[in-house]
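Predict structure. Chain length: 99.
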Amino acid sequence: MAKEILQFENINATDFKNEIIDGVILALKNNPGSLQLNEQTDQLLTRLETAKLLSISLVTLWDWTKKDIIPAYRIGNKVRYKRSEILKSLNQKNQFGEF
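Prediction complete.
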């Protein structure tokens, strides 16, 4: 990989900071899909909703939960799953090939 040299002359700290901010804003505008933080990704799902999302049975979901394949949260006597963590778990497992 070629080494790039970046040299600044006659620029103050405020102008430099503004240039960096403008560059970041431009990069985010050009690639809006890189940020996937929204209400839907952190939504809590019931066991049934999670099983439907994954197209698996409740028994399989319970098995995957016990094996820590998919993280779960107990709220009182109810079990909930974060949509973002389900998707993240699937992406991690998909990289390794199988459950």
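Summary: The chain has a mean pLDDT of 80.
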